[in-house]
Structure formats: structure tokens, C-alpha cells
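Anyone? Bumping this.
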Amino acid sequence: MSKFMNSMRGILQRSFTLGLSILMAILVGSIIMLIDNHNPIEVYRLLLEGAFGSTRGLFITMQRATPLIFTAIASTLAFRTGVFNVGVEGQFFIGAIVGTWVGYAFQMPAVIHLPLTLLAGFIGGAAWAYFPTVMRQKLGVNEIITTIMTNYIATFLISYLTNYPMRASATTPETPPVQVTARLPQFVEISKEFGKGSQAHVGIFIALAVVVIMWFIFRRTKLGYEWRMVGLSHMFSEFGGVNLNRTFISGMLVSGGIAGLGGIVEILGVWREYKNLFAVGFGFRGNLASLLGGQTVIGSTVAAIFYGGMESGALSLEWGAGVPRQLIDIIVGLVIFFMAAEGMWDFLRRRKAAAKSGGDAPTAGQTPAKPAEKTEAAGQAAQAK
Amino acid sequence: MTNAVEMIGIRKVYPGVIANNNVNFSVATGEIHALVGENGAGKSTLMNVLFGLTRPEEGQIFINGKQVHIHKNSDAIALGIGMVHQSFKLVPSFTVTENITLGGEPRKGLLVDRKAAHDNIVEISKRFGLQVDPDARIRDLPVGVQQRVEILKALYHNADILILDEPTAVLTPQETRDLFGVIRSLVAKGKTVIFITHKFNEVMTISDRVTVMRDGKVVETKDTKDTNPTELARMMVGRDVLLRVDKAPANPKDVVLEVQDLEVLDNRNLKAVRGLSLQVRAGEILGIAGVEGNGQRELVEAIVGLRPVYSGKVVMQGKEITHASVRQRRDDGISCVPEDRYVRGVALRATLEDNLIVESYFKEPIGRGMLIDLNQVTEFSQNLIKKFDVRTPSSKVTAGALSGGNMQKVVLARELSLDPTLLIVAQPTRGLDVGSIEFVHRTIIEARDRGAAVLLVSAELEEIMSLSDRINVVYEGRIMGEVSGAEADEESLGLWMAGVGGNAEAAHEASSEHTAETLKG
């Protein structure tokens, strides 16, 4: 009973702060819309209607959410092991390009070709994550910096590949189309009525399978336990005998792999060939969705779907009401901002309380927690040297 | 005689806790007043109220018979109240003079009058018999002298009432004796001292009167000569407490752990352990006494496998494990209660279950193939929680929600769950209340009686003397000497802890080497 109450309280608290952040974002967003001469209530109504109000809207939401689920889960996995993988973006692209190559360069039956192409995407993403991981583990270079850098390298590498060796079209930098045997069917290709007007594809099932598998791994496996514990306290895990190196590396590789898988699924389902810069920003939005979802598997999945919905709604707003979709990006940005601000409020509240009590926090749990975290951070810094 | 301090009806409530409940506390002018109580009894809150660091909901304060309103820290300082905190608030790279005058420098025009500051400090230190070199840098001074600087700082700000918050926690017995000398000379010059502690022998030695607090209330104030440690302990805990540890004579068997000429580097790449050798046998407790920072931490980390060995050997039951991984060593039967309970001992944000299984999740019956059996986890955890009497609403709360004593029980439960051949315990009772200390000590002795070899590292001399069958004293990374637990006396251990006697030559050589390396680094 108390276990149930505990987890319920956690979920409630989390939903409350999320709700509050969304509310604040909506309010500030309204002001911006008023300045831009739009009726905010009408805009929000159209936004929700566009995203979730019609079958077509729902399918577009699904299509938009599919790659975000991958990148959000990839980010979450890294966050949970204590790593900020900003490189999800680059891993997504590299997975896409490697998979695309396997997709167009080989001819074989679909039962082999499709899984092989997906696997190539996974390996591509994982390989791209390997480099910054090794830099972190062997040289202590901060992964945020290296993954940002590898994102640039990925962008330019792909620009080169699509412009020269892999180029198929004389007019635009794009690769040859992937073989039919490697494609993921869109719903509209399966049945004319189902999913009309959208490019939603069966890749959503792969995304959801990844969600279920990751949830299971975190909860029920030794590997998941190690990932979680290292993320919660690497000092404790090391003391308990967990191999930190192996755990970090495996976490990053699987994170990169999932991002890469997301990239190739997007290609196989929607684009069917690699156009240079076909989908910039999926990785970063995945990072954000993971933060929005509290860095939990289920939470970030919901956040990714919500984010996809906002994009779908924004599209229909742009078509239907002439509201620039940048406004929607601003709203989503504001939600994130206020979510982050929640941490800030918490910090300010604690500082105020500490000032009142002269730094002598009364409860047993809190006082020691602070120096401990400090030491931990110091330990991390030491490790970084 | 007027009272220097008179606090009446002080009430301070924190969310969920009444830290001070109608507390009356008075200190006579010119006395040494000991304030004792367990962690969370409300001593610090009361002193923070007096020192203006927190404001009470109710209550009156009189200083020298006059009612005062202390709203902030500077009010208290202006009233002549000074406080020396447990962790010093000094700038390591500044000189003694700079630290003492910081924020209150004598000025000559726009410039700091360095000479006036210097002379002023020399004068104060002479007057109160606190020898300090005003031009020395804090980082070069031993802890005991740093503490003296803190006291000087308070005196420089004209403190008449000095609050000392657990001042002996970081000192050797000799430094403690020096401190007591200083306190007596302060009182002789008309100062009033409030001495916060949890060590009963200090209360008996230094104080004129003693006030005991429990659960936010004052239990009683007594003249020290009318009370004794047993009574103090009873007042503090609220029940009878065994102060001496009961244990049967040791029955040492084969050597379990052997450390040979070990050298280990600290975080700054200086040698912290410098040619240390020791042996621990099955069924005995070897105590390592010493002031903190003499290589104990590095020694323990090297044995457990958290820190690489620079040279020398670690041998476990005849098998060399000098470079083995943490997990391999744990498989060989090493368990450890680390000194950083909040950093190494538990993961604060993880559940008790996750904390308890970190050494058993990968093997049967909890681990099966790649999976973890959640039912087994719960059963395993709940058994340990019951066996070690961890007070918690459930096995699924986070470790950070527990009190220090309960957290340490979690650590002990986990480390003993694998029935270790070698149990290392480092500073096992730091920050724990008397009741928990009793439990931890009993658990350690039970482990010994079951045949485990126990290596106990502690800065608390009393703890070392009451638990150990043999005692080694460590100074600057070397063993200064060994004595059996029965023959140990505080005096000679204290000298070794200060690097005097015993292996003195080696120690001297060690310290000059140390300086050379510091310069190189």
C-alpha cells in the first residue's frame, strides 16, 4: 500500500509540475500570439484539433512522433547512466546513412534485407557514439563537448557522402532510393483508406517495441540495474564492484544504436532515400522530450508523442490558419524552459529555507545529501582529470 | 553572579520537526558550559539561535542580564558572541593575519593597515596564550593550530562568549589537551565558553556545568562534579546504555589479509601510504588508530580495489590481489563499510532494495541468466531489513530518506550479507547517535566471533581501544607502533598519532620526503 502511495505521489508531483509548466508556457505563448495578432484560444484549439482531433491528424502525429520516440529513448538511456548524450542528433544521421547504403546497395529478399538494413542503422549509430565514449573514458573529455563536435562531423561527413560518392541525382544531393525489399510500408500503402493523407508507417511498431524492451531492461535485467545504479551514483556502484567503464560504454553504445535505428526507420518509412539534411533536429528534440518526460522510459515516450502532436498540430495550423509554426516551437521551448525553471524554483526555495535556518537543515535525510553530492561531483571532476 | 547567557522558552520549528521546544538554557559568566546531546537533539539549532544564524518562533534572550534581540549574525557578533564551527571557515591560501582580519581590516586611508593588523593579532595571541605565527599560511598549519586561528578570529571580533562546536572531533589527544589549556586560560581572562560535544570524558574533564538535550528539549542542567558518564548517557538517550563494549577474548587463527610495504598515492599524486605493512588474522579485530588524513583512506581504498597500488603487495589468504578488480576481491571474501557513507556506502537516490543487492544482483538466487528476480530482491531485502532492524516504512524508499544510523545499518546489512572473510570498517560510527553506535559495535564484534578478520579504521581513539584486539597507529602513511588492545593507553597512542616516539626516525624521514614531493608536485 505504502509502496503504491509512494509511486503515486511521485507521479502526481511530476504531473503537477509538468501541468504547471505547460500552463505557464501557454500563458506566455498567448501573449506572444496576441502581439502577433492571433486569437490564442483559437490557435490552441486548432493546435489540439490538428494533432489529435482527426484520424488524419492522429496519423501525422504518429509519423512525427516515431523518430522522436527513438531519439527520446536514446537520450533517456544515456541520461540514466549519467551521461548527457547530445550526440543523438549525429548518431541518428549516421545510422540513417549507413542503413541507407545497405538499403540501396544490396539486393536480397525482404526477410533478410529489412532486418539487415535496420541492424546497419543500429550499428552506425552505436559506432558514432563509440568515439566520444572512448574519449570520455580514456581521456576524461566531457561528453557534451565531444558529442556536439561529432554532430558537426556527422553533418559534414554526410554532406560529402550525399554530394559525391553516394550521389544519385544530378540536381540535388541525394542517394539512390532504397530497394523495395528494405522499405517499411506506410499505412496508406497497406490500405488506401487507413492513414490517408499521412506518411505514417509501421516503424511506429519498432519504436514501441524499443520502448517495451528498454523498460524491461531497466526494470528486470542485470544490465539495466548497472545502468541505473551508475547513473544514480557512480561512486557507490564502483564501490559495489560494478565495472564503470563497461557500463558507461555499453550504455552509450546502445543509446547511439537506438538513435541510429531511429534514423534508418525514418528513412525506410518516410523518405526512402537519403536527402542531405532530411530531418535536422530530431536528435535535439529527443533530448528535450527526454527531459520533459523526466528521463524515464515511459515519460519520455509520452513526451515524444506529445511533441509529435504539437508538430502535427502546427502543420495544420500553418496550412489552415496561417499561423507560423515557429510560434509552436516557441511554445514547446517555453514548456521546457518552465520545466527547467521548476528545478530553479526548488533551488531558490531550498536556499531561502537554508538562509532562514542558518544552513542547518533539520531533517536527517537532507543535510548529508548535499555534501555527499558535492564530493561526488568532485570525484567526477577528479576522474575527468 | 549574572548569567552571561540566558535563553528562555526558545521554540524553533522546522517543517515536521520541533527542533527546540520551550528550551531554557543559561550560562554563568566565566564558566565552561558543556552542551551535550545526540544528533538532532537540538544543540546546533539552539546555538544557531544564539549566534543569530536562525530566528526562533518564540523565546527571549538575555546577554549579561539585558534582554537582546538577535536578528542576524552581525547582531550576535556585536554582542560579543563568537562561534568556532566544526568545519573551519578559513581561506587556505591566506595568512593567519589575513584570515583573522578578513572583513574587519584596520584601515589607513583606503589601504589595509597590515602592520596594525599584525600587531593586534600578536597582542591578542600573547594575552590569551594562543601561540600562532601571524604570517603563516593556513594551508601549512596543522589542524590544531587552524582551530586556534578560528578562536583568535572570534577574540579579534571582541567575543566574550565563545561557542565551540565539537572542537575535538579533528584533534589528537595531545592537541585536545592543548585546546583545553587554551579554554582554561580564556576563562581565566574572564571569557565564557560553551562547549558542544558528545564525548562524556571531555565533559567530565573540562566543563563546570553540563546541559543535556534530547528531542529538542533540555533534559537537565547539572554541575559536572555531581554527575558521571553513565548518568549523562542515560539522560542523552533516555535509557540505560552500555558504554563499554562487552567482548570475549579474541581467538585469532590464520592470517587472512597481509599488506606488504604498501605505497599508495592520494588524489594529488603524493604518497599517502608510504611503505605500510600489516597482517590481520581470522577472528581478531585489528584497529588502525591515527588522526585523519594520515593515509587511512588510501590504505582502505587500495585494499578494496578502488585505488591503484603504487608499490607493494596486498595478499588475501595467500593469494595476491594487488591488482585485482573490486568485484574479484569481493568474490574473495572482502567486505567493507566505507567511511563516506553518503557517497560510497549508499546511493542516496536509489531504493533500499537497489542499495542492498549491489553485491548480489549478479549471482543466484537474485540474478538468473541476464535477469534479476524481483521477488527474490524483495525477499532478500526484507530479510536484511528485519535482521538488522532498519527502521523504514518499506524496502522501496530511497536510502536518502533514512537517518544516519539506519543508513549505516543498511550498509552493514549488505556488507555482512555475504558472510565476509575479511571485514573492513572505516569510521563506522561517525555522526551516529549513541544507540546506533552500540549496535554497530556489537555487529562488528559478532562478525569477529563468527571468524571474520576485521580491520577497523577509526579516528575515535575510544572506539579503537574498546573494540580492537590489536592496535596499530598510523602516522604519515606508516605504522608507528603496535600494541595489544588490552595494554593500550591513550597517552602513548596519542604520541604515536602525533608522530612522536615509536618509529620516530622513519616518520621524520617520511615527512622530509613528503615536503620534497610537495615541492616537486
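Late reply, but here is one note on the structure posted above: Residues 45-323 of chain A form a domain with the ABC transporter involved in vitamin B12 uptake, BtuC fold (CATH 1.10.3470).
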